[in-house]
Amino acid sequence: MRSFWIWFSFLAMAWFCAFVNLTLSGVELPWRIAGCAMFFAVYFISPLFRQHSVGLTIILSVTSLIAIVTLWPAKDGVPNHYILLVYSIIAGEAVYRLSHPRAIVIGFILMLGALGPYYLGYPAIPPMFIVLYSLLLATALIVFHKMSSKEVEVSAWNEALLSEYRKMKRRMISNEQVVRQDERAQVGRDIHDSVGHKLTALLLQLEVFRMQVDDEAAAKVQDLKDLARESLEETRNAVKTLKHEEVGGLPAILNLIRKLEAENILRVNFTVKHGALSAPISNIQSIAVYRAVQESLTNIMRHSTAREADVLFEAPGGGVFRFEVSNALTESKSFREGFGLRSMRERMETAGGQVEVIPYKDRFVVRGTLSMVKKGGAEI
């Protein structure tokens, strides 16, 4: 749409100059003004046919004919060189929007409009000037069209390479996570088989020793036995943590942001307000927050042209934990909630929270809220 307004601005200025320099009688003025209004009315509907080359060819042909009739020189007038500017802008848009054969059709109509007045006896620009001007304009437009096509091709190649690069990076990260999980599982098995078994054996030996000593020594042995049992329980908890597949929490989110910025994929402005880091949320809630932030950033990379996002963590009033992921919208798009956002919403609801997805006029916001938990496990 921005390119349309650029073309329209140049065209409006060229029309103004051409119209002012026409020699008009009182009878001609009304229908020429009507022709000018008709030209811009037809031109305004041209964006509707951007994806239909035949329709756009017809629209530009009609606007060319209206421009020729409306700006046709008067018998007692003088040559109006600004008319060539109007024709040039129409020809430029034809070359920019249409294929070569269709652009040649528009150029042929405009050439007839430029040369016609001279051969019909009207005051007009000399044909040699028009021919030379047309050759120079055609050369410039052909070079412009080739450069524009090459730029589009290079942009498509870059997008394809970037997409392949991202797939490769995701594959590498996925493989790295699999290897890391295997290593964690192996470390967990080693701890369980070595430290866990030895602590169990130690407990049995302490129990045998306790039964063989007097009461005073037995009390001390019981303390040692309790210490060994606590160590065994902590070891088992550590093994369970190592085997846990889900990742979450602030460290995982920081790691995600660091990877995105290291690969120059996305710039993330991460803001943590007072109380958010120490908010008492459960492990399930922490994982839900991580997955929600991950899905939101992935959607920005996939669906948005913006390469910058804002992530906010806060705990207003100490009663709830709130996160927000947002990005600027460079163009308006229709929004439809897909599988990823539905999964995010379900995960947050399972964790006792909720998610709001709000597409504003110039910003897209994903906001989640979770109730905090007390140390005993109850919600605040």
Q: How would you concisely characterize the structure shown here?
A:
The chain is of the alpha+beta class and 380 residues long.
Could you give the topology of this structure?
Layout: H1 2-20, H2 28-44, H3 53-70, H4 82-97, H5 100-119, H6 127-212, H7 215-243, H8 249-262, E1 267-272, H9 283-303, E2 308-314, E3 320-328, H10 339-350, E4 353-359, E5 363-371
Helix pairs in contact: 1-4, 2-3, 3-4, 3-5, 4-5, 4-6, 6-7, 8-9, 9-10
Q: What's the β-strand tally?
A: 5
- Listing every helix as H and every strand as E from the N terminus to the C terminus, the arrangement reads HHHHHHHHEHEEHEE
- What's the arrangement of strands in the largest beta sheet? 1-2-3-5-4
Count of DSSP helices? 10
- Could you name the ranges where pLDDT drops below 50 across 5 or more consecutive residues? 375-380
Described by the principal axes of the CA atoms, the overall outline is rod-shaped
Largest sheet: 5 strands, mixed
Strand content: 5-15%
Distance between the termini: 51 Å
Report the C-alpha radius of gyration, rounded.
37 Å
Secondary structure class reads alpha+beta
- Assign a percent range to the helix content: 55-70%
| Average pLDDT metric | 80
